[in-house]
Amino acid sequence: MDRGKRVAFYERVGYSCLIIALLMALCIDDTCSQIPRRRPRNDKCPKVRAMRNFGLNAMMGSWYVIQYFASTEMFPEYGCMRSSFVTSDGFVTMNFTYVFLDDPDATFQQGNITWIIPNYGQPAHWVHAESSYEEIYNTYVIDTDYRSWALIMHCAEKTKSQKYLSALMLAREPTLGQNVINFLREKLPRYDIDVENMFPIPQENCTRMDAYAYYAYNTS
Which residues form the signal peptide (predicted)? Predict the structure, then answer.
C-alpha cells in the first residue's frame, strides 16, 4: 500500500472511531437523562400568605372538619372530626374530637392545640405555644367566610427530619358544596400540599356517642 492510500485509510479509521465515540457519548447521555433524579428534600416550610383583614373572633366557635391532609398519612384514618376554637389573652385553642375509621365501636377521641398570636397585625398567623414543642410550628388561616367554610394549614420544621404539613377544610355544617370544596383545594398545591392525599372526613353516623361529653362546642 503506497503512502497516499495508507494516509487515506488511517483517516477513515480515525473518522470512524470519532463517530463511534460520539454515538457512545450520546447514548450514555440519553441513558442518564432517563434515570430519575432524586428531588432534593425540602425541610423548610413554604412561605405562606395568611388571610388579610382577618376577623379572629368571627372565626371562633364550632366547625366540622370536612377534609384533612397530613404529610405523614397516606390513607384516610378519621371520621366524625369536629373542632372548636376559642381565643383569650392572645392565645388561640382548638379542641377537637374524632373517631378512627377502623374502630368498630367508634369511640370518640379528643385532643387540643394551643397557639399564640405573635403579631396582632397578622391575626391569621399563629405559632405553637406549648413549651413541649421547641421547634417551628406555624398555623395559618388561608381563607374563610366565617359563616360557612374555612381553610387552615400547619407547618412544622423538625430537626433532622422532613417538615410536617397538615391542612384542615372546615365547615359550619356537616356538608359543604362541591364547588366550595374545589375552590378551597385549589389554594393548597402552592404550599406543597398534595391534594390527592387530602381525604374527606365522613360525618355520617356520628351520634352513637355524644362528643359534647368532652367539651362544649358552643363557645359563645
Answer: none
